[in-house]
Amino acid sequence: MTRIISGRAGGRRLKVPPGETTRPTSDRVREALFSALDAAGALEGAWVLDLYAGSGALGLEAASRGAVRVVLVEAARPAARTARANAEAVGLPGVRVVPERVERFVASAAAAVEGGWDLVLVDPPYAVAPEEVDALLADLVPLLAPGATVVVERSSRTAAPRWPEGFTDVRERRYGETSVWTARC
Protein backbone atom coordinates (compact mmCIF):
# COMPACT_ATOMS: atom_id res chain seq x y z
CA MET A 1 0.00 0.00 0.00
CA THR A 2 1.27 3.46 -0.92
CA ARG A 3 -0.02 6.43 1.04
CA ILE A 4 0.56 10.11 1.71
CA ILE A 5 2.80 10.21 4.79
CA SER A 6 2.03 13.62 6.31
CA GLY A 7 0.41 17.00 5.84
CA ARG A 8 -3.14 17.93 4.82
CA ALA A 9 -3.72 14.61 3.04
CA GLY A 10 -1.67 12.47 5.45
CA GLY A 11 -2.82 8.85 5.57
CA ARG A 12 -4.69 8.96 2.23
CA ARG A 13 -4.08 5.82 0.17
CA LEU A 14 -2.75 6.06 -3.36
CA LYS A 15 -3.24 3.68 -6.24
CA VAL A 16 -0.18 2.18 -7.93
CA PRO A 17 0.00 1.94 -11.73
CA PRO A 18 -0.82 -1.52 -13.11
CA GLY A 19 1.98 -3.83 -14.22
CA GLU A 20 5.63 -3.69 -13.35
CA THR A 21 6.69 -0.64 -15.34
CA THR A 22 6.87 1.67 -12.33
CA ARG A 23 8.69 1.38 -9.02
CA PRO A 24 6.89 3.31 -6.29
CA THR A 25 9.13 5.03 -3.77
CA SER A 26 8.73 3.25 -0.45
CA ASP A 27 7.01 4.99 2.45
CA ARG A 28 10.28 4.79 4.42
CA VAL A 29 12.25 6.63 1.72
CA ARG A 30 9.51 9.24 1.18
CA GLU A 31 9.21 9.88 4.90
CA ALA A 32 12.97 10.42 5.27
CA LEU A 33 13.21 12.56 2.13
CA PHE A 34 10.24 14.78 2.93
CA SER A 35 11.21 15.18 6.59
CA ALA A 36 14.56 16.55 5.39
CA LEU A 37 12.90 18.80 2.79
CA ASP A 38 10.44 20.07 5.43
CA ALA A 39 13.26 20.80 7.86
CA ALA A 40 15.10 22.73 5.12
CA GLY A 41 11.99 24.81 4.39
CA ALA A 42 11.86 23.54 0.80
CA LEU A 43 8.12 22.74 0.67
CA GLU A 44 5.94 25.52 2.06
CA GLY A 45 4.75 27.67 -0.85
CA ALA A 46 7.02 25.83 -3.31
CA TRP A 47 6.53 25.21 -7.02
CA VAL A 48 7.36 21.53 -7.52
CA LEU A 49 8.15 19.59 -10.67
CA ASP A 50 7.86 15.79 -10.30
CA LEU A 51 9.56 14.12 -13.27
CA TYR A 52 8.89 10.44 -14.02
CA ALA A 53 5.98 10.82 -11.62
CA GLY A 54 4.58 7.26 -11.77
CA SER A 55 1.68 7.22 -9.29
CA GLY A 56 2.38 10.84 -8.36
CA ALA A 57 3.27 9.92 -4.78
CA LEU A 58 6.29 12.24 -4.52
CA GLY A 59 4.55 15.29 -5.97
CA LEU A 60 1.37 14.65 -4.00
CA GLU A 61 3.40 14.33 -0.80
CA ALA A 62 4.90 17.76 -1.58
CA ALA A 63 1.40 19.21 -2.16
CA SER A 64 0.17 17.69 1.09
CA ARG A 65 3.04 19.36 2.94
CA GLY A 66 2.49 22.87 1.60
CA ALA A 67 3.66 23.12 -2.02
CA VAL A 68 1.31 25.47 -3.89
CA ARG A 69 1.90 24.24 -7.44
CA VAL A 70 2.86 20.69 -8.43
CA VAL A 71 3.27 19.35 -11.94
CA LEU A 72 3.47 15.58 -12.34
CA VAL A 73 5.13 14.57 -15.63
CA GLU A 74 4.73 10.93 -16.72
CA ALA A 75 4.96 9.45 -20.23
CA ALA A 76 3.53 5.97 -19.56
CA ARG A 77 -0.20 6.29 -20.17
CA PRO A 78 -1.35 3.82 -17.46
CA ALA A 79 0.87 5.55 -14.89
CA ALA A 80 -0.31 9.02 -15.99
CA ARG A 81 -3.94 7.88 -15.62
CA THR A 82 -3.14 6.56 -12.13
CA ALA A 83 -1.40 9.82 -11.18
CA ARG A 84 -4.43 11.79 -12.39
CA ALA A 85 -6.80 9.53 -10.41
CA ASN A 86 -4.63 9.91 -7.29
CA ALA A 87 -4.50 13.69 -7.67
CA GLU A 88 -8.29 13.84 -8.00
CA ALA A 89 -8.82 11.48 -5.04
CA VAL A 90 -6.47 13.44 -2.78
CA GLY A 91 -8.12 16.70 -3.87
CA LEU A 92 -5.27 19.08 -3.16
CA PRO A 93 -5.29 22.34 -5.15
CA GLY A 94 -2.56 23.28 -7.60
CA VAL A 95 -1.75 19.77 -8.87
CA ARG A 96 -1.59 19.09 -12.61
CA VAL A 97 -0.67 15.91 -14.52
CA VAL A 98 1.19 16.18 -17.84
CA PRO A 99 1.21 12.93 -19.85
CA GLU A 100 4.42 13.57 -21.78
CA ARG A 101 8.01 12.40 -22.03
CA VAL A 102 10.13 14.13 -19.41
CA GLU A 103 12.77 15.30 -21.90
CA ARG A 104 10.13 16.75 -24.19
CA PHE A 105 8.37 18.56 -21.34
CA VAL A 106 11.61 20.05 -19.99
CA ALA A 107 12.46 21.34 -23.49
CA SER A 108 8.98 22.89 -23.95
CA ALA A 109 7.80 26.39 -23.16
CA ALA A 110 5.35 24.89 -20.61
CA ALA A 111 8.29 23.92 -18.38
CA ALA A 112 9.40 27.54 -17.94
CA VAL A 113 7.53 29.18 -15.09
CA GLU A 114 7.91 32.69 -13.77
CA GLY A 115 10.50 32.66 -11.01
CA GLY A 116 11.52 29.06 -11.75
CA TRP A 117 10.87 25.75 -10.03
CA ASP A 118 11.73 25.62 -6.33
CA LEU A 119 11.93 21.84 -6.07
CA VAL A 120 12.44 19.21 -8.76
CA LEU A 121 12.01 15.51 -8.01
CA VAL A 122 13.70 13.19 -10.54
CA ASP A 123 12.80 9.52 -10.07
CA PRO A 124 13.39 7.74 -13.40
CA PRO A 125 13.02 4.02 -13.94
CA TYR A 126 16.24 2.28 -12.97
CA ALA A 127 16.70 1.28 -16.63
CA VAL A 128 17.20 4.92 -17.67
CA ALA A 129 20.92 5.37 -18.39
CA PRO A 130 22.93 7.59 -16.04
CA GLU A 131 23.97 9.74 -19.03
CA GLU A 132 20.30 10.52 -19.73
CA VAL A 133 19.79 11.63 -16.13
CA ASP A 134 22.93 13.78 -16.29
CA ALA A 135 21.70 15.42 -19.53
CA LEU A 136 18.29 16.06 -17.95
CA LEU A 137 19.92 17.75 -14.94
CA ALA A 138 21.84 20.07 -17.29
CA ASP A 139 18.61 20.89 -19.17
CA LEU A 140 16.87 21.77 -15.90
CA VAL A 141 19.32 24.51 -14.89
CA PRO A 142 17.62 27.41 -16.73
CA LEU A 143 14.23 26.36 -15.32
CA LEU A 144 15.24 26.54 -11.65
CA ALA A 145 14.60 29.29 -9.12
CA PRO A 146 17.63 30.66 -7.28
CA GLY A 147 18.38 28.28 -4.41
CA ALA A 148 16.20 25.51 -5.88
CA THR A 149 16.54 21.97 -4.58
CA VAL A 150 16.86 19.02 -6.94
CA VAL A 151 16.40 15.43 -5.75
CA VAL A 152 17.44 12.38 -7.76
CA GLU A 153 16.34 8.88 -6.75
CA ARG A 154 18.14 5.91 -8.34
CA SER A 155 19.31 2.40 -7.62
CA SER A 156 22.15 2.19 -5.09
CA ARG A 157 24.04 0.28 -7.79
CA THR A 158 23.95 3.34 -10.08
CA ALA A 159 26.72 5.93 -10.13
CA ALA A 160 25.98 9.26 -8.52
CA PRO A 161 24.53 11.88 -10.88
CA ARG A 162 26.98 14.30 -12.46
CA TRP A 163 25.65 17.61 -11.26
CA PRO A 164 25.99 20.60 -13.58
CA GLU A 165 28.11 23.56 -12.56
CA GLY A 166 26.45 25.68 -9.92
CA PHE A 167 25.03 22.87 -7.76
CA THR A 168 26.21 22.67 -4.18
CA ASP A 169 25.50 20.85 -0.94
CA VAL A 170 25.21 17.51 -2.69
CA ARG A 171 24.19 14.80 -0.24
CA GLU A 172 23.54 11.11 -0.71
CA ARG A 173 21.38 8.91 1.49
CA ARG A 174 21.06 5.16 1.00
CA TYR A 175 18.00 3.12 1.87
CA GLY A 176 18.80 -0.46 0.89
CA GLU A 177 18.48 -0.69 -2.91
CA THR A 178 17.58 3.02 -3.20
CA SER A 179 19.89 6.04 -3.14
CA VAL A 180 18.65 9.61 -2.94
CA TRP A 181 20.87 12.54 -3.92
CA THR A 182 19.90 16.09 -3.01
CA ALA A 183 21.59 19.26 -4.26
CA ARG A 184 20.89 22.99 -4.31
CA CYS A 185 21.31 25.22 -7.33
Automatic annotation (TrEMBL):
GO terms for biological process: rRNA methylation. One of its GO terms (molecular function) is methyltransferase activity. It comes from the Bacteria. Pfam families: Cons_hypoth95 (PF03602). Residues 1-25 are annotated as: Disordered. Keywords: Methyltransferase, Transferase. InterPro entries: RNA_MeTrfase_RsmD, SAM-dependent_MTases_sf. PANTHER family: METHYLTRANSFERASE. This is Methyltransferase. It comes from Kineococcus radiotolerans (strain ATCC BAA-149 / DSM 14245 / SRS30216).
